[in-house]
Write a structure and sequence with these properties.
Blueprint (H helix, E strand, L loop, with lengths): L2 E4 L5 H10 L3 E5 L11 H10 L5 E6 L4 H11 L3 E4 L8 H7 L4 E7 L4 H10 L4 E5 L19 H10 L4 E3 L8 H8 L3 E4 L4 E2 L2 E2 L1 H12 L4
Parallel strand pairs: 1-2, 1-8, 2-3, 3-4, 4-5, 5-6, 6-7, 7-8
Antiparallel strand pairs: 9-10
Length: 218
C-alpha cells in the first residue's frame, strides 16, 4: 500500500479526521515564507503528543541551520523532520547524530534534470526524500503547498536512482493520484489542497483519494 501523508493539518480535530481516513503521516507546518497551513509550534507539539504510535508526525521547517532545526524539533516533539529548504550551516549527518530516532526527510523541489543529482547526493544522508513543486530561488521562496504538478518523469528517475523511500507531492488529488503512482512508483504520496474544501479537510475528498489510490494496487 502506498503510504499517504496529509499535510497542512490545522487542528487536533483535523489530525483525528486524517487518522480516521487511514493516513500514515501528518504534516505540521511551522513558519514559512509563503504557502498554506502554518500553525504555531505550541499546536504542533499538542498534535504530536496526541497522535497515536504508528503515525508519523512531520515537522515542516524552513530553517536552514542545523542548530535551529534541533531546537525547533525539541520544542515541537515530532518524530520526523521535513526540511523544506537547503541546509546551509551544518549537515544532515550532524542532525541525525544529535537526534537519534528522529527521521529526517529532505524536500527536493523539482525544477529540472539538475534535481536528479541533487536528490541522489542528499539521499545518502537522510531517511527519505519528498519531491515537491516549490521554487527556492524566488524573492519570496516557495517551499511547498503550491498546488502545482511538476515533471513526474524526473520524479520517476529519482525514485529509480536512490535507495531511500520517496514521497511524491505537488498538486495531487483524487483525480490524478492513481496516474501519479503508476508513473512515479513512490513509497508515499503527500496531499494538502487536493483533499480540502475552502481550506478545511473534506472527508468525502479523502475517501475518494484513498479509493482511487487503491485501484493502482489491485
Amino acid at each position: 500500500m502506498t503510504r499517504v501523508k496529509i499535510c497542512c493539518i490545522s487542528s487536533i480535530e483535523e489530525a483525528q479526521l486524517a487518522i480516521k481516513s487511514g493516513v500514515s503521516a501528518l504534516g505540521l507546518v511551522s513558519a514559512m515564507p509563503s504557502g498554506p497551513g502554518v500553525i504555531s509550534e505550541e499546536l504542533i507539539s499538542q498534535i504530536a503528543e496526541q497522535t497515536p504510535p504508528g503515525i508519523s508526525t512531520f515537522l515542516l521547517t524552513s530553517k536552514q541551520y542545523v542548530k535551529e532545526i534541533i531546537e525547533q524539533q525539541r520544542r515541537c516533539k515530532t518524530n520526523t523532520i521535513q526540511i523544506c529548504d537547503k541546509i546551509v550551516r551544518g549537515t544532515h549527518s550532524q542532525l541525525k547524530q544529535v537526534l537519534p530516532g528522529i527521521k529526517i526527510v529532505q524536500v527536493i523541489h523539482i525544477t529540472g534534470e539538475e534535481s536528479i543529482n541533487e536528490a541522489f547526493e542528499v539521499s545518502k544522508n537522510v531517511d527519505a526524500l519528498l519531491l515537491d513543486s516549490g521554487n527556492q530561488k524566488l524573492a519570496v521562496k516557495e517551499l511547498g503547498g503550491t498546488g502545482r504538478i511538476h515533471d513526474w518523469t524526473i520524479s520517476r528517475k529519482i525514485v529509480e536512482s536512490v535507495k531511500v523511500p520517496v514521497f511524491l507531492a505537488g498538486g495531487l488529488n483524487a483525480e490524478n493520484v492513481a496516474d501519479a503512482v503508476k508513473q512515479v512508483k513512490p513509497f508515499g504520496v503527500d496531499v494538502c489542497s487536493g483533499v480540502r474544501t475552502n481550506g478545511k479537510l473534506d472527508e468525502q475528498k479523502m475517501k475518494s483519494f484513498f479509493t482511487n489510490l487503491k485501484t493502482v494496487l489491485q
